[in-house]
Design a protein that fits this description.
This protein is of the alpha/beta class. Helices cover 30% and strands 23% of the residues.
Length: 252
């Protein structure tokens, strides 16, 4: 079994999930009878990561209660949902005392794979970059941020589809909102985030570009499995995820 005692996981779990036709916080909507966030935390535990901070917001007390039995979980409150970068900012107290890598994942990704996390953490331990993005190559990358690389294959940045050129839209490697950061580098990048965008939110997606622009080593590793492309935003998405979980032999 892998072991990464110096890694802290941050799990983004503050959202409501308005399209899920449920009053529950999105991460508590059941997948195969268990809250989605339970599957995420199981994968983190199985990857040998000893501590997780769960960022809560909508119906925060319900999430606290649902995860109360997990002794290696603490919570950070995002009272106002102002974006994924803002969510990580709410973990500053826990991050301030942490000297090591930080894994950032979404709490509504029940198909998060242990092998993907281990691949990212192994590369981080070996190379010690400022950031590694977990990416995926997809036949249909529509709607997702493309990973732009230089002629040598080095990471240059993430381009969102709406901002992509025709050539960039043909890129099949996409960002999957799974990151490993050097903690101090991440804190510096969070300080540089801007909410100068249509939603007036702070996005963790911008942190790799901030680090790259500062001359830091940023990597993109296409380690995520095809099943991890299945995101849950609607009831129909959840049905597809549950079908895949059954196919992969997840225990109910």
């Amino acid at each position: 079994m892998p072991s990464y005692p110096n890694v802290l996981a941050v799990v983004l779990a503050a959202g409501q999930g308005t399209r899920m036709k449920s009053d529950l916080p999105k991460v508590l909507v059941p997948a195969l009878g268990r809250p989605m966030v339970d599957w995420v935390l199981d994968a983190i535990d199985a990857a040998g990561i000893p501590r997780s901070v769960v960022v809560i917001g909508y119906e925060a007390d319900l999430v606290r209660q649902a995860l109360a039995a997990r002794k290696n979980v603490s919570f950070a409150l995002q009272a106002e949902q102002l974006g994924t970068g803002h969510a990580v900012m709410m973990c500053r107290d826990q991050l301030a005392e942490h000297d090591g890598p930080v894994l950032v994942v979404a709490g509504d990704s029940p198909l998060l794979q242990i092998s993907s996390l281990v691949s990212l953490l192994e590369l981080f331990e070996k190379e010690r970059p400022a950031c590694i993005l977990g990416t995926q190559r997809r036949e249909d990358p529509a709607g997702l941020g493309r990973i732009v690389r230089d002629e040598h294959g080095a990471f240059l940045g993430i381009v969102e589809e709406k901002d992509a050129t025709e050539a960039q839209r043909k890129i099949t490697e996409v960002n999957m909102s799974t990151y490993v950061f050097d903690c101090q580098a991440m804190l510096g990048a969070l300080d540089g985030l801007s909410n100068d965008n249509r939603q007036q939110e702070y996005y963790i997606t911008d942190c790799p570009g901030i680090l790259k622009a500062a001359g830091c080593d940023v990597r993109a590793l296409p380690a995520l499995q095809p099943c991890e492309a299945l995101s849950v935003n609607t009831v129909e998405d959840l049905a597809a995820v549950e079908t895949e979980m059954k196919r992969l032999g997840y225990a109910i």
